Amino acid sequence: MTTATRTTPADTEAALAAGLVEPRARRRRPRSRALALTLRTLGPLALLAAWFIASATGALTQDVLASPAQVAEAVGELWGNGQLTDALAVSLTRAGLGLFFGASVGLVLGVVTGFTRLGEELLDSAIQVLRTVPFLALVPLFMVWFGITETAKIALIGVATSFPMYVSASGGVRSTDRKLVEAMHSFGLGRWAVVRTVVLPGALPSLLSGLRLSMTLSVIALIAAEEINSTEGIGYLMAQAQNYSRTDVLAVCILIYGLLGLAADLIVRILERLLMPWRQAVQGAAR
Among 230, 225, 234, 239, which Cα is nearest to 258's? Predict the structure, then answer.
């Protein structure tokens, strides 16, 4: 049996004399969602206010950047004539298809190299070499292979989004508890059944991190892809606005790209809450 140690008044006095203080439990108050949302919007609102003030005072002229009011008018103009909705549909389709193919390939390759020694020895070194090549350097090559078609744009986005998912999936699979995998094998589960029921759920945090990076890169690659002689999409609107020096339309397109990146991050956050509810509880307790 173990004997519990009791703190005597003499021990307390000695601790105080040594400069130690009595530990106090920190009580954390839960933060309301309204307050959290308000704090998150302070940064964008501050930027918008600075933009408005700079335009109103003349520090920011229209030939440099249109004012918020002019950008709002440009949104109404593009929305009214249908250009904005058509461009959004085309760009979202490109980014979505490229992300789907790229993340799927990266996930499969990451699982293969992370779970099998043969796959790592055969594939990992080649993939690491390809990963160091900037995807923008592939634009001329893809134009030679596919021409100025949708295939070239989707392929470019797919290549850009595959490597973050590959690195995250491979690392997450490697970090799976090997003892748990061996236990599942001893119960008669096959290799791919273990991957489906043990490895992928265990690697879920890494997979979602890879998905967040891939979705962000899909927007970045979309900007580059739509520079390949596009005749539709947000990139086409930007090219036309550049030709006519429409800084208001250019600002609209830039804001749309930014909102697409923000929406991608929000989607992954929602997936994290749905698939890993325990993580939200741990983060709340740590704040």
Answer: 234
**Structural contact between residues 251 and 66, judged by C-beta atoms closer than 8 angstroms:** yes
Distance CA 176, CA 199 (A): 6
DSSP code, position 25: P
Question: Which tokens is 170 given?
Answer: 């491979």
Structure token pair of residue 147: 């021409």
d(CA 202, CA 179): 13
Torsion of CA 162, 168, 173, 177, to 10 degrees: -170
Distance CA 222, CA 153 (A): 8
Q: pTM above 0.85?
A: no
Alpha-carbon distance of 236 to 149, in angstroms, equals 14
Q: What is the pLDDT along the chain (287 residues), one digit of tens a residue?
A: 445 556 566 655 665 565 555 556 566 666 667 777 777 788 788 888 888 888 888 887 877 888 888 888 888 888 888 888 998 999 999 999 999 999 999 999 998 888 888 888 888 888 888 888 888 888 888 888 887 788 888 999 999 999 999 999 988 888 877 777 777 767 676 777 777 777 788 888 888 888 999 998 898 888 888 877 778 888 888 888 888 888 888 889 888 888 888 888 888 888 888 887 766 554 555 45
Residue 176 neighbours by CB under 8 Å, 6+ apart: 198, 199, 202, 203
Taking the C-alpha atoms of residue 258 and residue 102, their distance in angstroms, rounded to an integer, is 21
